[in-house]
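I hope you will forgive my troubling you with a question about protein structure. Could you please explain, in whatever detail you think fit, how the structure tokens follow from the sequence? Thank you for your consideration; the sequence and its tokens are set out here.
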Amino acid sequence: MSSAKQNDMRKIIVPTFMTMDGVLQAPGAPEEDRSNGFQWGGWQFAYWDEQMNSVLSKTFSTPFDLLLGRRTYEIFAAHWPYQNDAIAEIFNRINKYVVATTPVDLSWKNSVLISKDVVNELKKLKQQAGPDLLVHGSSRLVQTLMSNHLIDVLHTWIFPITLGQGKKLFREGTQAQQWKLTDSVVSTTGAIIASYVPDGEVKGGALYRIK
């Protein structure tokens, strides 16, 4: 079981790998997600460096539970229980909350299903004692989180590549809001890792007069 934070609401933290044109589909491997004929799986591979490993290690350095969509959960459940490294030790030990409205095998240890009234259940989960909730992949779940203003920290890993097709982070229906930059790093390969927190409603204005 995971260590609990005391007297603090759990945050939902979303690190997302994306291209310059916003595609987040299948960054890790060719067979990760070929839906809709996607042919560019594994596009992040050529850009990974030690600086990224350092940032990822920092993300994993504080207690967290996983919050995953069904497809990402199934990919993880087919891989991490059979690994024997530091990340596997963490992932196999902590709680895994999986949002799924279709049947899913929950045999991976410490897995908990969220299948009904998802938005309210996630709000309740955030209010419970426990570590922050870290989202990986899970593009459909991320859309739900964004449209309901449930993301507390957004880490965008923007890779210097455009694909022109694939599932995107920001789609029609994304809620209007401002974000505040809290940290940024540029990798040796040109990827930009930027961290944001919500910063209220959009504030408009005029940079110039229209006669």
Notes: The CA atoms of residues 67 and 97 lie 5 Å apart. DSSP finds five helices and eight strands in the chain.
